[in-house]
């Protein structure tokens, strides 16, 4: 099918996948071999193992189900992520290779293996990295999602979901919470499960809004982007001095934000007045006052 027509079938295909727990057979891989026997990492609803596909190292995300009652709902989320991810093609978005089915019928999503890991781990190993190119990469990836047809909301932008390529560029990963702009899937339960509280915009923490109306938006992605910029330059979690989730909610709802880092590390990484002004604008309390990802780029 003509690539220019892709937007016509992406949304209905995602909807069908989310309701049925199915995915196109053309996405299925056959020849995947394991490297080692242990789980390397985990997140959301999947464990990560290393594999080989035609001799190339790949990351294999395996659907993790603890209770039989969870299987149907998680399968639908998993297949929806596969279908959405399959439509994406950008240098700052992690490539998707396909779906692999285990002998016990569990499903796996596959992508390139990134030896540099996520941006948080990478910067611990290379603390004096110049980080402005990285935050530009993230903004470019976000702009691609937000200007796609249909427009895509990532919904889980945070440091551990930003991977570093062999050429040391940043790319967005983990599309388990991503939706098209007109989707109406609540953020509350998924956000709690994935531990994204520190990156959630204040409008998503409003106790006066019911769960069905509490959905991620383009503006909430931009808010999370600002929090990731803080992570990258400071080496700290947003609002790291606050331990309990309920106190984070109260602080963010009242306009609380991390203070500007002032140590040598942040300056070496490239934080200056101009960039900090962008960060402050991106995490504005009013979502209408935040720039678009395209304006950031």
UniProtKB/TrEMBL annotation:
Which InterPro entries does the UniProt entry name for this protein? Answer: Kinase-like_dom_sf (IPR011009), Prot_kinase_dom (IPR000719), Ser-Thr/Tyr_kinase_cat_dom (IPR001245), Ser/Thr_kinase_AS (IPR008271), Ser/Thr_Kinases-Pseudokinases (IPR051681)
Which GO terms fall under molecular function for this chain's record?
ATP binding; protein serine/threonine kinase activity
PROSITE patterns recorded: PROTEIN_KINASE_DOM, PROTEIN_KINASE_ST
What keywords are annotated for this sequence in UniProt? ATP-binding, Kinase, Nucleotide-binding, Transferase
Annotated signal sequence range: none
Protein kinase domain: residues covered: 34-297
Superkingdom per UniProt: Eukaryota
Kindly give the SMART domains that the UniProt entry links to this protein. Answer: S_TKc (SM00220)
Under Pfam families, the record lists: PK_Tyr_Ser-Thr
- Report the PANTHER family cross-referenced here: MITOGEN-ACTIVATED PROTEIN KINASE KINASE KINASE 20, SERINE/THREONINE-PROTEIN KINASE TNNI3K-RELATED
Provide the protein name.
Protein kinase domain-containing protein
- Organism of origin is Piloderma croceum (strain F 1598)
């Amino acid at each position: 099918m003509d690539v220019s027509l892709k937007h016509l079938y992406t949304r209905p295909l995602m909807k069908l996948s989310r309701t049925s727990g199915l995915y196109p057979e053309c996405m299925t891989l056959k020849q995947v071999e394991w490297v080692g026997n242990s789980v390397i990492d985990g997140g959301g609803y999947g464990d990560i193992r290393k594999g080989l596909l035609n001799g190339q190292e790949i990351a294999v995300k395996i659907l993790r189900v603890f209770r039989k009652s969870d299987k149907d709902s998680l399968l639908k989320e998993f297949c929806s992520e596969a279908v959405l991810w399959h439509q994406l093609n950008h240098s700052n978005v992690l490539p998707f290779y396909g779906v692999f089915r285990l002998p016990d019928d569990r499903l796996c999503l596959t992508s390139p293996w990134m030896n540099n890991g996520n941006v948080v781990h990478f910067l611990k190993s290379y603390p004096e990295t110049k980080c402005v190119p990285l935050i530009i990469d993230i903004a470019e990836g976000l702009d691609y999602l937000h200007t796609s047809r249909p427009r895509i909301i990532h919904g889980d932008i945070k440091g551990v979901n930003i991977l570093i390529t062999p050429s040391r560029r940043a790319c967005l990963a983990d599309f388990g919470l991503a939706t098209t702009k007109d989707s109406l899937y609540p953020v509350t339960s998924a956000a709690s499960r994935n531990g994204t509280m520190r990156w959630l915009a204040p409008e998503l923490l409003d106790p006066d809004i019911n769960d069905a109306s509490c959905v991620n938006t383009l503006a909430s992605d931009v808010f999370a982007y600002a929090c990731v910029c803080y992570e990258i330059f400071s080496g700290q979690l947003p609002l790291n001095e606050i331990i309990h989730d309920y106190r984070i909610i109260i602080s963010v709802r009242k306009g609380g934000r991390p203070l500007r880092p002032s140590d040598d590390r942040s300056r070496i990484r490239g934080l200056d007045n101009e960039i900090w002004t962008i960060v402050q604008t991106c995490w504005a309390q009013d979502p209408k006052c935040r720039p678009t990802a395209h304006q950031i780029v």
